[in-house]
Design goal:
Elements lengths: L2 H15 L1 E3 H8 L3 H14 L2 E4 L2 E4 L1 H17 L4 H13 L6 E4 L3 H9 L4 E5 L2 H7 L5 E5 L3 E3 L4 E3 L1 H8 L6 E3 L4 E3 L2 E3 L3 H4 L1
Parallel strand pairs: 4-5, 4-9, 5-6
Antiparallel strand pairs: 1-3, 2-3, 7-8, 10-11
Helix pairs in contact: 2-3, 5-6, 6-7
Length: 194
């Protein structure tokens, strides 16, 4: 079977399933791992698939992350807000009195910031989280500074953060993401992922 024929079959299966492991590509076409690897590289280089740990995924995930990034923080806040509020309510139940927490930048975590009722110490690099937490007398707030990312409203400076938090041990860490699949966590901005 020619590579072009294999590529068509892989794309058909990828379209139906959303993702394929390297082994599934081998089994689907009865080919070696080296042949599967070459086919996967071709698909990724052409932009027809996205590389994941141990396989490939549909470009759907990449497109969704791009849409997420393009909307910006303030526009994302209202998107699926009922689900975000439900997640924030569940996360709030995990916070105990005297916990030391880290709140990442995220529209869902901004909802969580509004809900915190326990006496806590919270570190964040999100302008919006800080704006909600500063009003709470029972929260000791630490805002991590650095360069400000205007579109997504967070501060970042990897060296600065590492120095500030290297000796801290958080009881709870709440991390935001553009998407989560079995293959991993997707972030819209390199700065946010760091």
């Amino acid at each position: 079977m020619y590579q072009e024929e294999r590529i068509v079959k892989i794309l058909e299966e990828l379209s139906a399933r959303g993702r394929l492991s390297n082994q599934e590509v081998c089994d689907l076409l009865d080919i070696s791992r080296d042949t599967a690897r070459r086919d996967i590289i071709k698909l990724v280089n052409e932009g027809s698939a996205v590389r994941t740990h141990g396989g490939i995924a549909s470009t759907f995930y990449k497109q969704e992350v791009k849409k997420y990034k393009d909307r910006g923080f303030l526009n994302r806040k209202d998107h699926a807000s009922q689900s975000k509020i439900a997640i924030a309510e569940r996360a709030n139940q995990m916070i105990h009195s005297k916990d030391m927490c880290f709140f990442d930048v995220s529209t869902t975590i901004t909802f969580l910031s509004e809900l915190v009722e326990e006496e806590t110490i919270i570190f964040t690099h999100s302008l919006d989280n800080a704006g909600r937490l500063v009003e709470k007398d029972h929260v000791e707030l630490h805002l991590l500074g650095g360069k400000f990312h205007k579109k997504n409203r967070f501060f970042y400076d990897l060296f600065h953060f590492n120095e500030l938090i290297k000796d801290l041990h958080f009881d709870r860490v709440f991390i935001g993401a553009a998407g989560i699949t079995e293959e991993g966590v997707y972030f819209a901005d390199r700065e946010d992922a760091l």
